[in-house]
Amino acid sequence: MAQKKNDFSQGSIPRNIMSLALPMTAAQLVNVLYSVVDRIYLGRLPGSSHLALTGIGVTLPIVSIIMGFANLCGTGGAPLCSIDRGRGDDEEAERVMGNAFVLLILLGAAITAFFLALKEPILYLFGASPDTFPYADDYMTIYLYGTLFVMISLGMNPFISAQGFGKTGMLTVVIGAVINIALDPVFIFDFGLGLGVKGAALATILAQGISAVWVLAFLTGPRAILKLRRAYLRLDPRRTRQIVALGLSGFFMNMTNSLVQIVCNATLQAYGGDLYVGVMTIINSLREVFFMPVHGMNNGAQPVEGYNYGARKYGRVRECIRFAVGITVAYSVLFWAVAMLFPGLLIQIFNGEAAVISAGIPALRIYFVMFIFMSLQVAGQGIFVGLGRSKQAVFFSLLRKAVINAPLTVLLPLWGMGTTGVFVAEAVSQLIGGLACFTTMYFTVYRPLGRLPDGAEPPHRP
Hints:
Layout: H1 2-5, H2 13-42, H3 49-87, H4 90-125, H5 133-144, H6 147-161, H7 166-188, H8 197-219, H9 237-271, H10 274-310, H11 314-341, H12 343-348, H13 354-368, H14 371-386, H15 390-417, H16 419-450
Helix pairs in contact: 2-7, 2-8, 2-10, 3-4, 3-5, 3-6, 3-9, 3-10, 4-5, 4-6, 4-9, 5-8, 6-7, 6-8, 7-8, 9-10, 9-15, 10-11, 10-13, 10-14, 11-14, 13-16, 14-15, 14-16, 15-16
């Protein structure tokens, strides 16, 4: 019954996509609460809110790197599972999932050891100052001990959604986030344990641990169509290469985000000090929250796109693309208007200090002025990943951040723009990267699929 129910080659495309996208979007938003709620609470610590918030901001690149390795396995393996399900090859889909799980465990152990050994020089490299390092160190040390929990919950959850169980995938992060939000005030403030930054990190890893248990219980339980089986927990070179090749898009997106965060923090520290590093922390927090529906919509479309592509129903694939892009652009216009009209209110969610608000309002407006074009890049990359086109997905992940954004973040301040240049660099990269990615997707994927009759040999096989 589950196999029949989750056959995406039948029924309404919008209904199929929204049945996954709505819970996945909710899950993405709730997932962001793990770190954003920490920052909201820490931004209100008596006597040290500014330094605590900035210290957490310094750790964001490391958190993003960990998420990148989780995405390497999750966004690399789950679309392959969807395509294999569309072809009717569930055994191969399960083998892919088993390989992805083993890869997650190995990478998680290596990442933990690396950052624990080198965290002090890395945190200073990423923008810490003598005043903010103690906060960054306290948070990062505890967070790193929960790396495996983070890897499993984030990396394996896409395999639940890929089978059509969007609500179950949503519960993975909802359960963890509710626990995190409940524990934060108890662990952080003096009326509870009073652990401050350490309490925020401890609440986060406990919540992620429970989420990881939930994911594994479902994937080994009776409801799953594709199960995590012990017999398939052996790395196969061919499958591993396929997972890594396709997952490099999500991986590089997180890695380049980390790169830009590092460059931004270091540049802002040099030109504006801890104040502007704190402003960037707030902007990054808002970006995470308001960008999640864009990711959720496109992640929800991927299983439907991949299934129909594997089933050789190209008209339905094109319909998926049209619907996902239309919803993405409509949402982006709405958020852009809010960011342009009410920047001060958004900043005050995190910190009410006059200096932070004064510096943050123009910075936020510049940073998000090209947000609509950025959403087009996410839509284009999501389509490339959903159809197994790893090279294009990886190229555009690197183009916007590594080729355009990071160099401009260094050069524009040197050319006399100061801290403003950091935020202008982001806007320029959103415009160029978004147009380049979406235009390429249209001419290399959408239009060619329109010339293929259903049932024809696919033009590309992952």
